[in-house]
Amino acid sequence: MAKLAYIQDIVLGCVLLGDLPLSTFYRVLGCPPGKRAEAPDPISHDLKNDGAVNHPEDEPLATPHQPSTPVPATIGSFRVTILADSNRDGKVDVTGNTDLAGKETWTAESGALFLANIVDTDQRCSSQITGSCASKLGDIFPKTSLPKSPRLDPELAAKKRNRKEKSDSEWLKVLSESDKATYNEYLKKLGEFWDAPKEVNDLRISECHDSSDNVLRNSIYLAPLRTVPNPGLSDSATGSITVFDETAASKVRLFYKAGGQWTFVTSNYTFQALDLKAGLELGIDARDVRRPGGWDGRVTVEFRVKDGEREAKDSVALRVAPVLTQHYGQSAEQLLTASGHPRLAGFVKDLGEMSSTAGLKKPLYIFENSECIFSSGLDIWSQDFFEPGYMSIPGPSGLVSIRIMIRSAQADRPAGRKVFQELRSNIVGALQTPGRGGTLDSLGNLETIPPYTYNGKSYAAGRTVMGSAGRKKPYMMAFLEAQETQAPIELDTSWLKVKHTDEFIQFLPV
User: Fold this and answer.
1) Residue-wise over 246-272: b if at least 16 C-beta within 10 A, else e?
2) Composition bias, kind Basic and acidic residues: at what positions (predicted)?
3) Could you report the per-residue pLDDT of 181-193, keeping only the tens digit for each?
4) Less packed terminus of the chain by CB within 10 Å, N or C?
5) From the CB of residue 38, how many other CB atoms can be counted at a distance below 10 Å?
6) Partner residues linked to 129 by β-bridges
7) pLDDT tens digits for 403-419?
8) SS3 per-residue string spanning 30-94
9) What Å distances lie between residue 249 and 167, 246, 325, 431, CA to CA?
């Protein structure tokens, strides 16, 4: 496993980090301790690599185990079975029973995982982000209606036209409390109207990625589903695959493989007897990640077969893998930083030389941020406008992983758009959380404790740490909590001017 992390709160961005030495981590994802994946992990590849990733396209998503206790699906009992990798060993057992127990219920310890396929293969979306500090979006991005210009109440507008006072502030003093409230609400909506084009683009920039349509571009990110062969069906039998819950259905994609080709499965897709008899090879991915107050990543897939007057059904539960941040217990692979100010030239040059001397796998990556303005100055603080993370699930040859770049919850920080424009590829995705956060949402305020055990409780993926000030918490905290894995810790950082945790804590190996 590899990681992007930061070197303290200077002009730097991140460091690509290497192997996770912890068998306990795999228990979070359901992988047996000691069964370290030996296959290449896409997280360890170059950020901009668009070549082959860890599994060849023709490798089956489901690798049957040797028979143990067969699970027949015969016409006599008219039993149908759909399976996923519920025991998290990277395979779907269609001939035995290792994926049967508890498959209809998802828990932290068992139940199939799948990935949010938010990478950008061949920079299909990224290449259409242009303009000053990634401010313009091409036609490939979903269209969003802009609000109409607000209109002031006619009676109040007439009062304003006929006023004797020279300024708005003087006029407001003579208005009734009711008129003041009406006028202030109008000003608020007017401000929102003028800000809308920029804010809409900030929202739209994350809406184009590999799973934003129904085209499969990278099948390695499909989690496997299989139906048990049912040779006893008649030739008139038909079947369907559907997702419970309208919200969940809108967040996932299902595909069916036949003749070596993947086909998107619509809600009304009908499978024919020949395919049902042989058993279906299916794959699932997600269009989004777990969100606070929204979809929590859970999905139940139902398999239904009708043969004459008889009908049978079965289901399996899955959940999208959590987005995890990365920690200091991993070896550096690449540094990222920002340029844009003449005074940084020497620093960037020295950093590049240090990276080379250290023998890092990849050269220094430099954001050119000369047009990215934040807080009345150039935004050179790469550590603050994004945080690297990842998602992983067990696969037949080891972990299948996607690196995820997390934009800070600061909608008015344009540099955050750069992660969508520059860092995404067929192995790297990006996401953002809503909010116009202040300094607490700069991601220099986010640190990750390496995996540890305390009072008998194991934190196999480590724990995140964010600072707060009084009653004010970072918007990002809710997103971290929604992942339900790294148990965020909140620290009081009100005593610091910038209020960032990276100014006073760091974790080092001993």
Assistant:
1) eebeebbbbbbbeeeebeebeeeeebe
2) 39-49
3) 888 888 888 776 6
4) C
5) 8
6) 137
7) 999 999 998 899 999 99
8) CCCCCCCCCCCCHHHCCCCCCCCCCCCCCCCCCCCCCCCCCCCCCCCCCCCCEEECCCCCCCCCC
9) 55, 5, 27, 20
- In the CATH scheme, what is the homologous superfamily, with its name and number, of domain 82-117+218-320? Protein-arginine deiminase, central domain (2.60.40.1700)
SS (H, E, C) 223-245: EEEEECCCCCCCCCCEEEEEECC
Specify whether the CB–CB gap between 321 and 25 falls below 8 A: no
Cα separations in angstroms, 493 against 306, 399, 496: 61, 37, 6
Residue type, 165: E
Alpha helix (H) residue ranges in 115-176: 154-161, 168-174
What is the CATH number that goes with domain 324-492? 3.75.10.10
Cα(313)–Cα(140) distance, integer angstroms? 39
Secondary structure E strands in 131-280: 136-137, 223-227, 238-243, 252-258, 261-264, 271-272
Where on the phi/psi map is residue 463: left (φ > 0), alpha (ψ -120 to 50), or beta? beta
> Tokens 């991993």 map to which residue?
330
Distance in angstroms between the alpha carbons of the first and the last residue of the chain: 21
Task: Please state, as a whole number, how many other Cβ atoms lie within 10 Å of the Cβ of residue 169.
Answer: 8
Residue 191: CB partners within 8 Å, gap ≥ 6?
A: none
Residue boundaries of the structural domains of the chain: 82-117+218-320, 142-207, 324-492
How many angstroms separate the CA atoms of 100 and 92, rounded?
Answer: 10
Location of structure tokens 């890092």: 360
**Amino acid at the residue 340:** G
Contact (Cβ atoms closer than 8 angstroms) between residue 354 and residue 142 = no
Other Cβ atoms closer than 10 A to 468: 18
Q: Is residue 264 within 8 Å of 253, Cβ to Cβ?
A: yes
Q: What is the maximum span of the chain, computed from C-alpha positions, in angstroms?
A: 91
Distance from C-alpha of 369 to C-alpha of 381, rounded to nearest angstrom: 10
Contacts 24+ apart (CB under 8 A), 310-313: 310/78, 312/78, 312/79, 312/80, 313/80
The pLDDT of residue 24 is: 32
Top pLDDT among 283 and 510 is at 283
How many whole angstroms separate alpha carbon 157 and alpha carbon 407? 42
